[in-house]
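Deliverable D2.4 — example input (structure tokens):
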């Protein structure tokens, strides 16, 4: 069987693409190697999803998945290792384990993965004090001392979230200025048990069975100190999952994000992209919007529309 569409990734972009694909009666399958919801599932309090004053990321992701499934989404819990062109059948073939799944169009919605610090001790203590997911791990740090690394919105919202569990939350950031929205900076500053360690980088994570401390260097003074810690939450941004797109000829920019036009078309006709993998503003609402456009564009492609623009004329 040749599907109309394969969606790779079931974060907000992929789930919304599926919702729109179902509504356009596209026979499609969604591949997801982890859990549906992607990074949204790990977000703490989401306060910028229209219609929701405040909702936990995992709850919002669960609702998206339920809606997509109710409309007929088929999910395969497998990683796609490659996309190849099937010239003979004029379609694409996604390789997943020993399976080869064919489709007339593909939406790459694999998002981005969390960046690592790359310091001594980081890998050794993953799950033993080093975490990349506060919503998953915060309860383990009740009454403990933790640090969040980073100065973006993720780091500061995470610090405030952790402050409800931990006795003390240090925010270790390599500059004085924050990348985070002013409102998120405000909230962190107003939280009594959040303390900033600025102009500072972690050089090493130390411990025995679990994390015990971090070696921190002040980048201005070069002073080095050892900060006793029970946990370290790394929130220093993301790297796009664009490799399989690149291998099939999809153009990427200098930072490895997939290049798309306004209709979410990539440089390869029939392959579309949506969400964080495109390097646009990495917000769930944007990823969902792009997923909707990509699905409508895939519909037009599959049905042989000539202009390829996203909006379906009525
Ligand atoms: P981000 O905005 O890229 O911030 C990454 C932070 O980590 C920066 O402060 C950066 O420092 C620091 N950093 C990067 N590499 C580092 C390294 N090797 N060592 C130490 N520090 C390092 O990433 P993000 O916070 O994950 O946010 C991603 C996107 O999601 C952003 O667009 C953000 O606005 C959005 N978001 C929004 C909300 C919200 O509530 N509105 C919540 C979460 C995320 P420099 O600043 O010095 O580069």
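Example output (designed residues):
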């Amino acid at each position: 069987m040749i599907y109309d569409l394969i969606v790779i990734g079931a974060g907000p972009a992929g789930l919304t693409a599926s919702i729109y694909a179902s509504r356009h009666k596209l026979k499609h399958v969604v591949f997801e190697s982890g859990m549906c919801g992607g990074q949204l599932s790990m977000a703490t309090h989401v306060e910028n999803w229209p219609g929701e004053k405040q909702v936990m990321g995992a709850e919002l992701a669960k609702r998206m998945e339920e809606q997509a499934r109710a409309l007929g989404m088929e999910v395969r819990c497998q990683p796609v290792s490659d996309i190849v062109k099937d010239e003979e059948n004029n379609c694409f073939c996604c390789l997943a384990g020993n399976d080869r799944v064919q489709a007339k169009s593909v939406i790459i919605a694999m998002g981005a993965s969390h960046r690592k610090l790359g310091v001594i001790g980081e890998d050794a203590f993953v799950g033993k004090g080093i975490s990349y997911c506060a919503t998953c791990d915060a309860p383990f740090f009740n009454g403990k001392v933790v640090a969040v690394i980073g100065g973006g919105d993720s780091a500061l919202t995470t610090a405030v979230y952790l402050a409800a569990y931990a006795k003390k939350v240090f925010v270790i950031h390599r500059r004085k200025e924050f990348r985070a929205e002013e409102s998120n900076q405000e909230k962190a500053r107003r939280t009594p048990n959040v303390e900033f360690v600025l102009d500072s980088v972690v050089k090493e994570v130390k411990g025995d069975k679990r994390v015990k401390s971090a070696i921190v260097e002040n980048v201005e003074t070069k002073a080095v100190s050892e900060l006793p810690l029970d946990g370290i939450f790394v929130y220093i941004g993301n790297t796009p999952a664009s490799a399989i797109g690149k291998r099939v000829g999809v153009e990427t920019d200098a930072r490895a994000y997939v290049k798309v036009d306004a209709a979410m078309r990539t440089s390869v006709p029939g392959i579309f992209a949506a969400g964080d993998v495109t390097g646009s503003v990495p917000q769930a609402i944007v990823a969902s919007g792009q997923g909707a456009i990509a699905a409508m564009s895939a519909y037009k492609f599959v049905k042989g529309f000539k202009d390829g623009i996203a909006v379906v004329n009525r």
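Confidence is low (pLDDT under 50) at residues 310-314.
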